[in-house]
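The protein record quoted in full:
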Amino acid sequence: MADIETRRWLISGRVQGVFFRESTRREAEPRGIAGHAVNLPDGRVEVVARGNAKALAELERWLHDGPPMARVEAVQPVAIDQHEIESGRFRTG
C-alpha cells in the first residue's frame, strides 16, 4: 500500500463552534480516511488524516471551505512524523 499517506493540517479562522470537526469526520470517513480533528487552545483545528493520496487531496480541498458556518482563513500543511492512527476510524475531540 505505497499510496497510503499521513498528512497534518492546521486550520485557522472561524473554525471552532461551527461543527468543523464533525463535518470533517463526515467528509473523511466515506473516503476511507482515518485520523482526527481536534480543537487547539489557540482557536485553530488540527486535522491529521491517513488514507490514499487521492482521498487526502479531496479532503484538503474541502478543508479550505469547511462547513457552511465556518470561515476558513488558512489551511497550513505541517510536516508529520508517524502517528498511531486507528485504522478505519476518524475521531473528533
Notes: The helical segments are 20-28, 53-63. The chain has a mean pLDDT of 90. The CA atoms of residues 8 and 26 lie 17 Å apart. The beta strands are 4-14, 34-39, 45-52, 71-78, 90-92.
